[in-house]
Description:
The complex is a heterodimer. By secondary structure, chain A is mostly helical.
Amino acid sequence: MNKNFSKRHKAESRFKAYGFFSLIAAATMLAIIIGSMIYRSIPAYTNYTIDLEINMTEISLEDGIDDINYRGILRSSLFSFFPEVQSRSDKRKLFKLISSSATYTLRDFVRENPSYIGKKFYFNVLFTDDSDLFYKGYVDISLPEDERRLDNKEITWLNQLDGTGRVKNKISRNLFLNGDSREPEVAGFWGATIGSLITITVTLLLSFPIGVLTAIYLENFAVKNRITDFIEVNINNLAAVPSIIFGLLGLAVFINFFGMPRSVPLVGGLVLSLMTLPTIIIATRSSLQSVPPSIREAALAMGASEMQVVFQHLLPSAMPGIFTGTIIGLARAFGESAPLLLIGMVAFIVDIPATFTDPATALPVQIYIWADSPERAFVAKTSAATLILISLLILINLAAVLLRKRYEVKW
Amino acid sequence: MDKELENNNIIENKALIECKNVDVFYANQQALFGINLNIGEKEVTSLIGPSGCGKSTFLRCINRMNDVIDICRVEGSIKISNEDIYHPDIDVVELRSRIGMVFQKPNPFPKSVYDNVAYGPKLHGRILHKDDLDEKVEKSLERAGLWSEVKDRLSEPGTSLSGGQQQRLCIARAIAIDPSIILMDEPCSALDPIATAKIEELIDELKDNFTITIVTHSMQQAARVSQRTAFFHLGKLIEVGDTEKIFRSPDHEQTEAYVTGRYG
Lengths: 411, 264
């Protein structure tokens, strides 16, 4: 008798230990993923810059702001540090150490502040991604010269520049405020984030009402027969269809048949709605089913019509479940890239989208594009964008928890 | 029809509900067989019988709650005040607004006590002014013997009350729509003896204004609260008559066996 009891207790504590270790394993893996993302993204948040002295004393407004040789001004400013560099090829190499975007940022700055024309001032200019990585210590100098992105000459110049005290490591505003770019030091995820948000808004606006109404109809009004059974099986099946299939469908139907534009959040939202609908329908139906039948009976016996039962009793009680299902569906759609690739949201888009029909890309697709880029600096950018995606997903899930709490019904 | 049964079906008071040859089927399974039962106005009729005998099914025919069950089919005629309630022209929603129902398990809505009682009057648009509604809620709760206990808790959820209070809240909710009939499906089966006593007392008071039909498993309860009792067995109405007679000297042996506890 006693032996039996101690055996049972042992089995119990063994089982608890298994559960505890699984939890630890899961938490460790999550921590490793997030930790490595954070570690790898560190170089992305800052960018080395240099204050170049811009000499515009010999230029006047009459020259026309757009016709000023900004490139020449930057070049002579940079070359003034290295009087010994004379050959054309060396000069070109030297100028390539700073970002090619410098010319445009200087032009934009002067356009906005024409009062600087005719003056001498310091202007903060980005280094290119390779120089930036060197300053951050990611270039292994012990490697043979031809295996490095920077040769010995360039490294000497960079060290020389560092000695001037003009080189600063600054928070990379581009990362947070820009769209995509070919130059890693200029590329940012803001465009993709906005694209994602617009897309997900379209998805929410379409799939939530359609999904909930479908579920209510199927659950409370539809006659139970073979056709509704067939529809039910198909909806459950659609929830398991790989997302890329929805992309193919969107390409064939929305773009080729209806002639909608490519690469726009509207089509992206439509495709993701198709993908999210089954999830919302299933979640809504099961939350409607989980409302105690006694409430339905009570309302019917009071003389409520079927529609009143649904809107006054079933829906309010089912709301937390519906919200949870919807947000899980949306979170999945938010992290989806495959269907968006097919409808052209993988295009290289520099501008920040503003409407449903502006060409855009989405965060997961941006991650894909950057992960696929050869420049080494994109590694950090990829991790940073992934962290942003994860943070947004955490926010979305937090919203789900809060909405659930807010609308929870106590029986 | 059985001669005795026919005789017993004649009631002194006017019959408010007249049921003739009511058959109920669940898919192909017949649950009720030719029920002929008259229910008198402003008195309490209790339906007794062993589990699964069809008494609840019969009760649910009276306010057509069986309509909700897809596979359920009702045949025969049920008339309330000489109006056939299964006639195609009858609006079920309107019919149910005249009949209150109290269920086995207390099922207040997950709303405040006040909103639970005010639900019916608001639903049917009978009371539009807030003051009138307040009065109606108070009066209904008073009639259900609950007012003194909940008058300070009107905004608390109805589900936070005790089981007995919840059931009286459900009764208050049912009488707030001024029904002529109240159907009760084992209203005390989930309650303790004290709460049960309160509900029984309440039923006794309500019978002056409402026609009450109550399904019960407790013989004592049937004896205490009802004027007439109908005994169901295996989907058939075996015997109906004055409660006293059913319990003292039933005509049928089966009835006697059941009420004396030898059976069922």
